[in-house]
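explain this chain.
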Amino acid sequence: MFGDDHKAQIFIAKHSPWNRTVKEGAEVAVAYLDGDTGIARTEPFLTGFIVDKECVGRPVDVATTPNAEQMAQGAQLAQDHRCASCHGADDTGGRLMPPLRHQREGYLAKGATRQKASR
């Protein structure tokens, strides 16, 4: 997907808080590993999510798993809790809500529990 200089590096989705007056931090950064002591340096990789002091998008974390069953369980959990009312019928995310697709099951369960408790 990326060139050799990005292979086996860490991509960090920095979420800009949607409820802050000053919008900052919405970007994807790459952390280059030095192989021995950890992170050698970080730098912006994908920017442009803040335009005219407004967030026009929010980067999201992506988790991959060799176990497709986990992803299916997360999708079922979202459907059971009727998350489509906030996130969109296809789980793509709304203006202030992140996408649900490909989120870890534990994250979805915790969010659904919090949402139910606040009703």
In short: The mean pLDDT is 71. Strands lie at 10-14, 27-33, 39-46, 50-51, 54-55. The radius of gyration is 17 Å. The chain is about 25% helix and 20% strand.
